[in-house]
Every structure is written in structure tokens, then in C-alpha cells.
Amino acid sequence: MSYNNSGGGYGHKPDQQQYGYPPQQHGWQQPYQQNQQQPVYGQQPQYENSQPAPGNYQQAPPPNDPPPAYSFYPPTNDNKDNYTFNDAFQVQKPKWNDLWAGILFLAAMGGFVAISALSLKSFTDSNQSDHGIYGGDSFGLNSNTAIVFAFCLAMAFILGYAYIMAARTWPKQFIWVSGILNIALAIATGVYYIWAGTTYAGVVFLVFGVLLIFFFLSWRKRIPFSAFMLRAAIDVAKKYGHVWLVSFLGGVVGLAFGAWFSVTLVGLYVRYDQSNNATKIGLIAYITFAMYWFSEWLKYTLHTTVSGVYASWYFSPHNFPKRATRSSLRRALTYSFGSISLGSLLTAFIQALRQLCSIARSQAGADNGIGLWIVFCVLECVLSCVQWAADFINRFAFTHIALYGTPYIQAAKDTWNMIKQRGIDALVNDCLLGPVFSIGAMMVGYLTTLMAYLYLKYTNPVYNRDGDYTAVVMAFAFLIGMQVTNIFTTPISSGVDTIFVAVGWDPEIMRREHPEMWNELVKTYPTVMNGLHG
């Protein structure tokens, strides 16, 4: 299906002003006035009390009083042959925002590299006898630990890529199949773990399955709208930019870093196997945090890149900017590098705490500590809610950053105010693609965890004869499956997020340039869309 029509567009240049990116100091300072007269598109709205333009803008920005009906003006499209992404979303006097966070990110990655070098050196210096699948009495690279993580990485890559390809091929059935398969896998693996004697893992997976049944039943009425948005995002990805290439390359980078993290992890166990337990725990906590930070940074870099592609389609469907993907990626890796590092730091810290709770909960279950198991379960649920809120804000803030190169804090504030004042939160909350992709990542996590468990069970390595490391290996196997799949699904979910943010910035564009999508949104959410259109 297509979401473009032949009429309308940016066929002419505004008479008085070439719009640059939105003025930073104006933001969303006043509520949206539904009854306010809308500006004629392609012309400059006239206001009284306009102020001089700051030095980093081409022309005078819209004044504070009164605010324009649609803030964040769309890019100028002159229908020229060499119309590029930088022409569409101009950044006058570019600045490296939040540079301190970018430097901190590089320093953290430098620490990871140093620890990895030390751990791998320990492997090369250690006695490599009795290595392989069954041998080895230590938890390290000279045992089968590296092999089980390699299998988990391979499975995560194959299933993650197959999952996103299934969404591309069967978007309408994708949501139903994802939910049903996830419930079936959670319950089946939970029953198997209990039957096999790993009661703590079985209870956790059964709880996941029961909760998913409840959530999925409550989502039924929202599935048609979500399927429509998924089809829209996939149609754009097929025709514009290099969205699928971004998804694939992101998955490859995520896989490579996951392999690096895995060998570093088991290398630390080699180096500190017999002593320095506190040092070992501290270093493992650090590399786990670094892994989360890199994964989140990679995910949001992909998100920012793809947001540039979808925004180019939204604002300029008849003259799609050239080199949109490359230019958007270049901006993400330069001027917005620090902002992406800052936003990903917040979610990485929360995820690292969740992982520690997960390991502690699994260990408490293995030790039959029911009280601690319940405490860590509750704490993990609380952290999950906090992570959801942080990720929700980040998704839309980074769309703003992708187009206009603003600092992270300002982008988060402006975008959040826009979402609330325009009523876009109703559309966002009813779109299930974020939760569906999350449960899809969990589904891959179930399978990588099961593979790790079966591998340990049937190879029965010497170091794990008493099951001391089963919980740790299963927890990290689940982590690998989820993170790799999340990277694969980021581009499509980013496209849907960008559409929501763009319709909040200027719904008139959707009404004129993408009427089929507009009509679907009006049919589903007449109050919200009529309020947007005025």
C-alpha cells in the first residue's frame, strides 16, 4: 500500500522565510489552542511583536506571543535535483551537544577494552589442558563456557533477523503470532524447567506466561491499529532509504560486541577463579554495565538514523532528500553523539540494575531463599517500570535530536510537552509495536536461555557439576538473546515513533500528503485527530 498522493506538497518556496530548524528557546511554552486559525501551508504566518533572530538562524523565528498553531516548521522543499537531508533539516552553526557524555562513553568503552585485554591475556597464559565441551574444572575459556555463549549468540542472531523479516513479510499476522508464540514458549519452558528440577526458573517463566495472557487479552482491541502502523512503517522502509540495511548492520555490530563481551566475561572467571572474589564481582558488574551502555548507544544511534529517513518521507514524499540515511547517521555520530551517549547512559544504568536483580533472584531461587526471591522479583518489576518510562521519553527525544540537533535535555522536554499538549500520547499508548517487539525479544531470550540450560545439562562440565553456575549462565544467555533482537527491531519501531512525533509537529502534512494514514487515524481517534487539525 502507498501513503502518498499526487497532490499538494512543497512545490514552492515560502515568500518571506526559509525555515530552518525550530528555535530552541521557544519550545512548547503555551498550550495548543484548538480554535486558533491555522497557517496556510507554504506561507509564513504573521504575528505581532516578533523579535530579532538569534545568530544561529537564517530568519526571524516565530515569536513567543502568540505561539504558532503548528510549531517546529517543516523543511523547505524547493524541488531541486540535489535536494539533500541537510537541506531539509538544516542546522545552522552546528554544535557538538552534550560532549561531556560522549567523552564519558568513550572512557567507559576504553575501560572495557582494558579489562578485556587483561582477561584474554589470562586465557592465553593459563593451562589449556582439558578444554572442550566436557572437560575443564574452572568456569572459563578453557571449559565449554565460550562454546555455549557462541551458540547463544548464533541463535540470537538467526532468530532476531528471522523475527524482523517475519514482520516485513506478514505485518498483519505478525502481532497475533508474536503474542501467541510468546505465551506458548513461556509456559512450555516453565513447565519443562519445573519437570527438570530447576524450580526457580520454571516459576519465573510461568509467571511471565500468565502475565502475557492477561496483557494480550487486554490488547486485542488495539491490534488492528497497531497492525496498520506496522504496515505503514514497513511500506516506507521498502521504498525509501536503507532501513533494512541499517537493521542488518546494527545486528551484526551487536552480535560482534556480544561475542566480545562473552569471551571477556568468561576470561574474568579464568583470571579470578581461585581468589579476589570481590574484584571479580566488581569487574563483571563493570563490563555488564559497559555492555548495556554500548547496546543502548547502538540502539539509539540506529533509532536516530532511521528517524531521519522517516521524517524525510513524512515532510518530503514527492522529493525525497538524497543521502538521507548517510547524512542522518553522520549527524548521529558527530553533533548528536554526546546526546545519544547521555540518553543511553540513563537506560543502561537501569538495565544493569535489573540484570543484577535478575542474577540475585535466580541465585536466591537456587538456594531456596524464597524471601529474597520475592524481594528481588518486586525490585525487578519496579526497575522495569522505571526503564519503560525512560525508554518512552528517549524514543521521541531522539527523533527530535535526529532532525534538529538539539541537546538531550531540551529535546526531551520539548518533545514531552508536545506529546502531552497535542494528545499524541493516546496514539502512542494504543500502538502495541513497542510491547510486541519487546515480547519478541523475550521470546528469543527464552530460546537462548533454554539452549544454555540444555547445553549445561547434557554436557555436564566439571565446573558446574553442582549447578553453581547454571543461574549465571542462563541469565546472561537471556540477556544476549534480548539485546541482539532489540537491535534488529529498533529501525521499524523507530519509524512508527517518528510518524507519531511528526504528526504532532505538523498534522497538516499528514492530512495533505498521506491521506490514507490520516483517514485511518481519524477513524480510530476522531477526538485526538480533530483536535490536532483544529
Automatic annotation (TrEMBL):
Highest taxon above the source species: Eukaryota
Record's signal peptide: none
The keyword Ligase is assigned to this record: no
Bias (Low complexity): 16-47
Compositional bias per record (Pro residues), positions renumbered to this chain: 60-69
Molecular function terms from GO: transmembrane transporter activity
Membrane topology per record: Multi-pass membrane protein
Polar residues bias: start-end ranges: 48-59
Protein name in the entry: Protein PNS1
Organism: Thielaviopsis punctulata
Name of a matching Pfam family: Choline_transpo
Residue ranges of the region described as Disordered: 1-76
Transmembrane domains' residue ranges: 99-120, 146-167, 174-194, 200-219, 240-261, 281-298, 332-350, 370-390, 432-456, 468-488
Free-text function comment from the UniProt entry: Probably involved in transport through the plasma membrane.
Family, similarity comment: Belongs to the CTL (choline transporter-like) family.
Keywords: Membrane, Transmembrane, Transmembrane helix
Compositionally biased spans, kind Gly residues: 1-11
GO cellular component: plasma membrane
Localization of this protein: Cell membrane
Chief location: membrane
